[in-house]
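## tool: complex_structure
## caller: assistant
## args:
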Amino acid sequence: MSGLRQQLLRTDASGMPLEWIDYRQAVKLHSLDMVAYDLGDPILTIRGGINNESHQSKIILHSIIATHGNHQNRYCLDKGYAPPVSNEALFQRDDFHCMYCGDQFHKSQLSRDHIIPVSQEGEDSWSNLITSCTRCNTHKAGRTPEQAGMQLLAIPFIPTHAEYIFLQGRNVLADQMEFLRAHFPRTSPLRDRLS
Ligand SMILES: [Zn+2]
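## result:
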């Protein structure tokens, strides 16, 4: 049992990963009879009194739950969808490594680098953004890697929704990790990351 702060992975009824939810949202889904089936290990037992509409005196929450109903973020599963960029997810994508010098840093020492600089009409998109330490970023300044004589250590990629969920995860459990991984593209660079 992992405690009340553990995130649960919610999928649609066909098992496509949708989002992280907390135990309150999971209890609510149970009480609304929206849980189709449990997929992951049992992680938490909630006893009665949490939700008065529920007739169950005890709800066992699992690490992954498949739910009925239309999900407002269903479009995230569409082909060609790109999740929103945040520094946190970007640094996670690059595993907190500077993509120029290759060293790993704390997030406070990292920055978002536009490979093609904004001043040269570079976009704020996953494929034009890379994690850089502040030192390399300062050195690169308003130049492209070619202009600055710097080499990119990896090709930036646009995460799929399943990859993005993984990148956003906190304390991702082993079964959740395995489940998400099965939904990653075969060529996903994140595959090697999971231990
Ligand atoms: Zn660096």
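## assistant note: The radius of gyration is 20 Å. The helical segments are 23-31, 87-93, 134-140, 145-148, 161-168, 174-181. Handing back to user.
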